[in-house]
What we know:
Layout: E1 13-17, E2 27-29, H1 32-39, E3 44-50, E4 53-58, E5 63-67, E6 72-75, E7 85-91, E8 97-103, E9 109-113, H2 118-125, H3 135-142, H4 149-153, H5 164-174, H6 187-206, E10 249-253, E11 256-260
Parallel strand pairs: 2-9
Antiparallel strand pairs: 1-7, 3-4, 4-5, 5-9, 6-8, 7-8, 10-11
Helix pairs in contact: 3-6, 5-6
The structure holds a DNA duplex.
Amino acid sequence: xxxxxxxxxxxxxxxxxxxxxxxxxxxxxxxxxxxxxxxxxxxxxxxxxxxxxxxxxxxxxxxxxxxxxxxxxxxxxxxxxxxxxxxxxxxxxxxxxxxxxxxxxxxxxxxxxxxxxxxxxxxxxxxxxxxxxxxxxxxxxxxxxxxxxxxxxxxxxxxxxxxxxxxxxxxxxxxxxxxxxxxxxxxxxxxxxxxxxxxxxxxxxxxxxxxxxxxxxxxxxxxxxxxxxxxxxxxxxxxxxxxxxxxxxxxxxxxxxxxxxxxxxxxx
DNA sequence: CATATGTCCTGAGAGC
DNA sequence: TGCTCTCAGGACATAT
Length: 268
């Protein structure tokens, strides 16, 4: 998503609109009138990412943070429908560009931070990014937890950027049982896990993400991803493991689906 | 303090 | 066909 938004770097925000939609409005802070006053005329200095958040760093030092959550999209192209369009930033210059925040389910948020406020806000919520963290750091943060490793991977304060789908995929690649308590993992397991996380996230990014049957993920140009065709376990309950042929199993941990291969992912 | 649960939301799909 | 029910999961508030 971030990569697809690179074309807006250097652009000036010309207009800010909150399209009227029949559904309940999403959380926008500050409310639209004040947001518009603070954004119009500002230059987008850079498009950044922190964990699952997308950040427009403005030349003033302010930051506009998008949290797409499950169904939110940040687009430079026509959205899947007009009904769930939540915010529109028109950008001056050629070619004409508009950044759209579209969110079918409406759990996403948009928030503006004054200069200097964002680092503190993020540091309260996010651990190191999954693409940067060392295995030692991950082990230090989670190694004494009694939580199941799959559940712990979803804790953004411990490790930022891993959601339900990629947690299952990484644990498969690492050969770890998702139910294993973090405290049962040895250094070699943390090493394998961090390596697997990096591999899964890089692969997924290369394939433009996972567009599930009931999911809505699209890249910034509203194109579907293809990583769902490469999933090793997610959404594959009852199908044969691509590595050993065993039937992939589904279980529920912390109210979320976990998929795993009972043969390739042994208890530690 | 660490961990667990409830809540929000909409649309897809199942079952009848 | 149309209704009701369940489920999807990210972040955060509240409970244990």
